[in-house]
Amino acid sequence: MNKHNNKQDLERIQSSDIPTCDTHLVHLDNVRSIKAQILSSDQAQQIAQICGIFADPNRLRLISALFSGELCVCDLAALTKMTESAVSHQLRLLKAMRLVNYRREGKNVYYSLADNHTINLYGFLVEHLDK
What pLDDT score does 79 carry? Predict the structure, then answer.
């Protein structure tokens, strides 16, 4: 998706009329039954931080490379045409959010996606693009 399409989508969303209730009537049964299921502020903050990590194109490209399997920093730099320093910086952020793991082998450090949750989340995002 290019910037032109994103701008058009944003303008369409901002200019569209969003239907709202004509009267203010709170359905207490609905509110009470859902209240226990709504995210806490802390949970919402944690999820927002993870979404923020996924919001960066360079980090997404690194995740997409790791989706195929374990790679060292040098390989990731070559694949993404980023410096090793830039790759390391992005990997540090991904590691802090527990989205990647690493292991050291001699002088090389190999990274992989942390778990099936990360793999599935990335897979769902890519799948969503194809629809």
Answer: 96
The model's pTM is 0.73
Other C-beta atoms within 10 Å of 11: how many?
A: 10
Beta strand 108-113 with 71-72 is: antiparallel
Q: Is 113 exposed, middle or buried (0-12, 13-18, 19+ CB in 10 A)?
A: buried
| Torsion 73-1-6-52 (CA) sign | negative
pLDDT at 62 over 90: yes
Across the beta sheet with 71-72, the strand order is 71-72, 108-113, 100-105
49: tokens are 């931080």
Tens digits of per-residue pLDDT, 18-34?
A: 787 788 888 888 888 89
Cβ-Cβ contacts under 8 Å for 130 (sequence gap 6 or more)? none
- Whole-angstrom Cα distance, residue 53 to residue 93? 8
Closest CA to 91 of 64, 62, 71: 62
